[in-house]
From TrEMBL:
Gene3D superfamilies: RNA-binding S4 domain. One of its GO terms (molecular function) is RNA binding. Coiled coil: none annotated. PROSITE patterns: S4. It comes from bioreactor metagenome. This is RNA-binding S4 domain-containing protein.
Amino acid sequence: MENIYISTEYIKLDQLLKFVNAVEGGGMAKNVILDGLVKVNGEVELQRGKKLREGDIVEFNGEEYIISTEEK
């Protein structure tokens, strides 16, 4: 599981996928989310604008990312 540090209150799901280089761009992020390939906290998430906050866990393509507001 990879810690992802954000300095804001939240990050949107599609932005996170681009930030961690899990997808090549916004269009690809939109497609993988709408295709049901991304989970947030264990549930399939279809909203690309889903706001992720500290403690949320995103699963995609065999990788897990946990959102953190403090660098560890």
